[in-house]
Amino acid sequence: DADVTQTPRNRITKTGKRIMLECSQTKGHDRMYWYRQDPGLGLRLIYYSFDVKDINKGEISDGYSVSRQAQAKFSLSLESAIPNQTALYFCATGTGAQETQYFGPGTRLLVL
Amino acid sequence: SQQGEEDPQALSIQEGENATMNCSYKTSINNLQWYRQNSGRGLVHLILIRSNEREKHSGRLRVTLDTSKKSSSLLITASRAADTASYFCATALNQAGTALIFGKGTTLSVSS
Q: Between B30, B42, B105, which is nearest A98 by CB?
């Protein structure tokens, strides 16, 4: 089984809808991250969490919120989806803020 | 340049040739990492080099780090078609509590 899983893998939604992307990990890591990837822009950090009680905004947090329900679970919500949030979203985990990160398979989101 | 900027953006070579891609950064780092991404999939960690190291090897990969020039290079020797992917550098700043910063990537195409 994969160490970092993301659900759903693909999602189509409409403008204005609230959606949640979920991430689970079995690696036992304290640190979890959400990124979005757009063609030609690389990965941009949305939110990160160093432990269950710690949530930090990343480079592009506007329009997003997160919840760290447990050490193993980190969810990303789009409060009111808009078309420019169409992207590939990745969850990642890590043992330390500056150490190796382990990525999930990604969620491809299309906002119409 | 931004923190963690790869060069070239795209690289096309023949099987058996060596591939070199570079990463430049602006701010003092704790370590620099290289990741690989096959089309549409999650990133996979390749190698981490710390600021007090100058060169590291892993199989056909060789990474160098020149902190005086704020640059790193990733060399893939004897490239194979399976090396076709995007390669990203990620920098860990010398500041506690910060997350990795990813560049925009180099897309490598290896033809047989």
A: B30
- pLDDT tens across B43-94, in order? 999 999 999 999 999 999 999 999 999 999 999 999 999 999 999 999 988 7
Q: 């808009």: which residue's tokens?
A: A82
- Give a three-class secondary structure readout of chain B: CCCCEEECCEEEEECCCCEEEEEECCCCEEEEEEEEECCCCCCEEEEEEECCCCEEEECCEEEEEECCCCEEEEEECCCCHHHCEEEEEEEEECCCCCCCEECCCEEEEEEC
Give the pLDDT score at B1: 44
For tokens 């780092």, name the residue.
B29
Q: Give the best residue of A43, A46, A66, A89 to mutate against chain B (max B CB count within 10 A).
A: A43
CB contact under 8 A, A103 and B42: yes
B22: which residues sit within 8 A by CB, 6+ positions away?
A: B6, B7, B71, B72, B73, B74
Q: Quick check: B59 contacting A, CB < 8 Å?
A: no
pLDDT 10s digits, A46-75: 999 989 999 999 989 999 999 999 999 999
User: What pLDDT was estimated at residue A42?
Assistant: 85
What is residue A96's predicted lDDT score, i.e. its pLDDT?
Answer: 76
